[in-house]
Amino acid sequence: MFSRFLNDKGEVVERFLALHHVKDTISEALKNALYDILDRYKLSISRIRGQGYDGASNMRGEFNDLQRKILDENPYAFYVHCYISSLLFQTVLL
């Protein structure tokens, strides 16, 4: 999990927070893993303003997947497709 935020000077800062093993990739298990990480760093779901995932259906689904579960709890956590995984995959193939 990565976190991107503005520091006191208004500069964008990006930090790697954690790599978390999950036994299942259903959206509820992923949500619980996300909450575990947020709790560990004393971060609140209410402060999230964006969420980005690859194109996996369990992450980006509109109705019952991870991005919807987060939006149900925080309507300001807008979903944006993360293209970096596609870029990394293309780079490896070259």
DSSP helix count? Answer: 4
Instruction: Note the gap between the termini.
Output: 26 Å
Percent of sequence in beta strands:
15-25%
Query: Which structural class best describes the helix and strand composition?
Result: alpha+beta
Poorly predicted runs are 88-94
Task: State the shape.
Answer: globular
How many individual domains?
Answer: 1
Please tally the β strands and state the result. 4
State Rg: 14 Å
Concise structural overview:
The protein is α+β, with helices and mostly antiparallel strands and 94 residues long. The protein contains four helices and four strands; from the N terminus they run ββαβααβα. The protein starts with a strand and ends with a helix.
Descriptive keywords:
globular; disordered C terminus; two-stranded parallel ribbon; alpha+beta; 94 residues
How would you describe this protein?
The chain has one domain (2-93). The chain has 4 helices and 4 strands, in the order ββαβααβα. The chain has helices at 27-40, 57-60, 66-73, 84-93; strands spanning 2-6, 12-16, 50-53, 78-81. Mean pLDDT is 79; it is low at 88-94.
Topology:
Blueprint: E1 2-6, E2 12-16, H1 27-40, E3 50-53, H2 57-60, H3 66-73, E4 78-81, H4 84-93
Parallel strand pairs: 3-4
Antiparallel strand pairs: 1-2
